[in-house]
Write a structure and sequence with these properties.
Elements (H helix, E strand, L loop, with lengths): L8 E4 L14 E8 L4 E4 L4 E10 L5 E9 L2 E2 L3 E4 L6 E2 L1 E10 L2 E10 L7
């Protein structure tokens, strides 16, 4: 689950094509990662209409009506976008030893499998 993090640019790799009204091929930023259900919330992807009960806010303005919000997508249906080719790629790891505060630390760095560039 650590392969995809909040703020990553991902692309939908499954589902209906865009000409059929689906989201396959669309790219968006990860807004939230839900590790309990292995799902991610992606900006502009899997938008659903939600009916919100009418009420009042603190200032007295009316709330409620029909809103469109993003619904979570399973993490297996999205892939990280390679920063070089702008195409979906798999994620690998590279370990480096970095000196921080005067001591050696091993750090795992995410790497795009297709180009070898850091993510």
């Amino acid at each position: 689950m650590a392969k995809i993090k909040k703020g990553d640019l991902v692309q939908v790799i499954t589902g209906a094509k865009q000409e059929r009204g689906g989201d396959r091929g669309k790219q968006g930023k990860v807004l939230q990662v839900i590790p309990e259900s292995n799902r991610v919330l992606v900006e502009g992807i899997n938008r659903v209409t939600k009916h919100v009960r009418a009420g009042q806010s603190q200032s007295g303005a009316k709330t409620g009506g029909i809103e469109t919000v993003e619904a979570p997508v399973h993490v297996s249906n999205v892939a990280i976008v390679d920063p070089e080719t702008k195409k979906p790629t798999r994620v690998g790891y590279r370990t480096e030893t970095v000196e921080r505060d005067g001591r050696q630390r091993t750090v795992r760095i995410r790497v795009a499998k297709s180009s070898g560039k850091d993510i």
